[in-house]
Amino acid sequence: MSKVAQYLQEHVTGEVMSSVDARRYFSTDGSIFSVIPSLVVYPRSENDVRKIARFTWQLAERGRVVPMTARGAGTDQGGAALGEGLMLVFPAHLNRVVEYNAKTGVVNVEPGINYGKLQQTLKTHGRFLPPFPSSIEYSTIGGAVANNASGEKSVKYGDTRQYVRGLRVVLANGEVIETGRISKRELNKKLGLSTFEGEIYRSLDALLEENKQLVESIKFKVSKNSAGYDIWDIKRKDGSFDLTPLFVGSQGTLGVITEIMLDTEIFHPETHLILAEFDTVKQAEEAAVELRAMKEQPSAIEMVDGQLLTLVEELNPNLLKDMIKKPFPAVAMLVEFDDGNERSQKKNARRAVKILEKHARSHQMETTMAKQEMLWKIRHSSAAIIAHSEGNSKALPIIEDGIVPLDKFDEYLTEVYAMFKRYGLRVAVWGHAGDANIHLQPFLDLSQIGDRQKAFRLVDEYYDLVLSLGGSTSGEHNDGRLRGPYLSKMFGPELYEVFQKVKQIFDPYGALNPGVKINVTLNDIKPLVRSSYSLEHLYDHMPRS
Length: 545
Ligand SMILES: Cc1cc2nc3c(=O)[nH]c(=O)nc-3n(C[C@H](O)[C@H](O)[C@H](O)COP(=O)(O)OP(=O)(O)OC[C@H]3O[C@@H](n4cnc5c(N)ncnc54)[C@H](O)[C@@H]3O)c2cc1C
Hints:
- The chain has a domain at 3-90: Uridine Diphospho-n-acetylenolpyruvylglucosamine Reductase, domain 2.
- It has helices at residues 3-11, 20-25, 46-61, 115-124, 141-147, 154-157, 184-191, 196-210, 212-217, 244-247, 281-292, 306-315, 342-359, 369-380, 382-387, 409-423, 449-468, 487-491, 493-506, 522-525; strands at 15-17, 39-42, 68-71, 86-89, 97-100, 107-109, 127-128, 164-170, 176-179, 256-262, 265-266, 272-278, 300-305, 331-337, 362-366, 389-390, 393-395, 430-432, 437-439, 443-444.
- It is globular, with a radius of gyration of 23 Å.
- A hairpin with a 2-residue loop joins strand 16 (389-390) and strand 17.
- The protein is an alpha+beta fold.
- It binds flavin-adenine dinucleotide.
- The site of flavin-adenine dinucleotide has 39 residues, from strand 3, helix 5 and strand 10.
């Protein structure tokens, strides 16, 4: 056992493992990459995390940087849950609901809690967390916060960031901080602290002041974004300050989260659900634009394309039998309303039908849960693609999360179809039509050099396309290793430099999840591509996407 392992074994209460099989198990996540950690640690308490961080900080001060990666369920599709140093695995012990306030619906949780279990618990109280990802059954809340995850309800409710009120975070040197919005006066107190926390507040405040104009000049054209660091809502005009939005979506590169305080919403199980079929993507785009302009937004505007329906029919003819007639539509869209007031829900659904009548070739509204479940199967049939292999070719998550402005949806999909044609690849598209945030995973064989090269050519061309349309490389899955190299292109070199300075402020020795999101190039990640892709550590559930 190495000296580091021995030290940690003696000083933390959680387990420390250096066995080959444990390290191999944690060498993959939901991405195409593989990185073997040197040690696996299952922290049992926040104090364990503090001790580990303090120890790595002391080593770094003496010139030896031991990377530290926090990990939830390892479903990340960009390689952010991988690292070559210490792998801190949270679901084993730090997986509890700490406190639930029935009056406010605010819940405090540890990061390793399974998202699906938390959701079930909240629903027993008549509440829920709306920005859940489709990986809800097998991912953690810590991963969702660190990725700023979102999903099918985000068109109405927004992303995870909007639900995180505050955090407890272990900083790179082992200090623990609590985040939440603080007033100008409270900020002044923080600025005077002689600790690392004080240093962070001082440096970050100065950085934001110096780059105020630059930061304000960058305006997003997309409805949601998980790429980059969120530096837009740290300091507000009233002088108040909050590190929470920055930590959300930072993928463990600025600190390790040990507790999360979340707002929740009232859960309305009864909904109106409409299936609409469109002959062209343009018609679907026009309908989506009008639906989004409604005063009361639909709680979901989801889609699959005709090519996905064809592929699903080939793979599993019974899955969608009799649910959608042939010829398949260019787009099948699901529109849901979940307003608490039954009458207004009905009224809004009728308004949506009027919109859909203008653009869709057919539509069908369902109000009973059994029928709705059948319709949702259409959207969730994308799971069949993810789990499928064609020989050694697997559906790879390499360009799986682009997002563009909604009025560019048709142009976007037209270009995507043309691109796949040029590459001689089949394409199937599904996702969040209301956000123009689509998922697609090309079938490629990672054991073949030709396919690996093709994958990176496709990646390059695809992200260029997304950015040329004013989009983001990631609507919800975040940067990880895969999309980190495109951040400078997306935000521009000047803002990228600000991101680098943010990273430097929080992590001066570069020990917190290095190689993820920031300071990563295509040359860094190409050697990390595995020779075959699988989601084997997730198969206790059928992966849904
Ligand atoms: C089939 C499939 C479907 C998916 N669908 C969606 C979707 O609909 N929407 C969506 O947003 N994502 C989706 N994802 C991506 C991923 O599942 C989610 O982002 C999920 O929230 C990640 O949770 P996790 O527990 O697996 O985190 P991990 O993969 O373990 O980690 C993700 C990131 O969080 C960091 N992290 C974890 N815990 C901590 C902590 N305590 N402190 C600091 N950092 C931490 C990790 O270092 C890593 O950077 C999907 C993935 C798959 C495989």
